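Exercise 7. Given the encoded structure of a 141-residue chain, write a plausible sequence.
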């Protein structure tokens, strides 16, 4: 009797996972391409180019979803280094293969619906208060 109950339960759980997916809206397959191609897929009609270098391209986008920054990277390592530094300031980041969308959580989530990728979030690092009230500096150099 127990084996039959276990089999029925397993079948119901499997059917539920197949019908509902993995607990949330599914993102499309992760986008790839140049900054301009990614901007078009994200419905950013007029990306405002801020940096156009070999290792990093960066543009600001303003859409119905909100304002965000779209970046593309020449290397995986350059992308990861940028993300690690950016996370010190907090925020939400949509991360794809050699591209990032940086913005508020609502905007990043909306753009994910068109570009795919993985959302990474970070709280800003707060400097520790000093008992002297001088921002952690003791005055000794």
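Solution.
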């Amino acid at each position: 009797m127990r084996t039959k109950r276990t089999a029925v339960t397993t079948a119901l759980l499997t059917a539920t996972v197949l019908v509902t997916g993995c607990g949330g809206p599914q993102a499309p397959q992760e986008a790839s391409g140049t900054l301009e191609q990614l901007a078009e897929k994200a419905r950013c009609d007029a990306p405002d180019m801020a940096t156009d270098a070999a290792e990093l391209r960066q543009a600001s986008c303003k859409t119905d979803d909100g304002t965000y920054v779209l970046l593309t990277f020449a290397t995986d390592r350059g992308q990861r280094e940028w993300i690690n530094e950016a996370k010190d300031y907090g925020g939400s980041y949509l991360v794809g293969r050699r591209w990032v969308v940086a913005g508020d959580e609502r905007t990043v989530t909306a753009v994910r619906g068109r570009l795919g990728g993985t959302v990474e979030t970070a709280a800003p690092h707060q400097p520790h208060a000093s008992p002297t009230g001088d921002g952690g500096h003791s005055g000794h150099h």
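Remark. The first strand starts at residue 48 and ends at 52. Students should compare their own answers with the one above.
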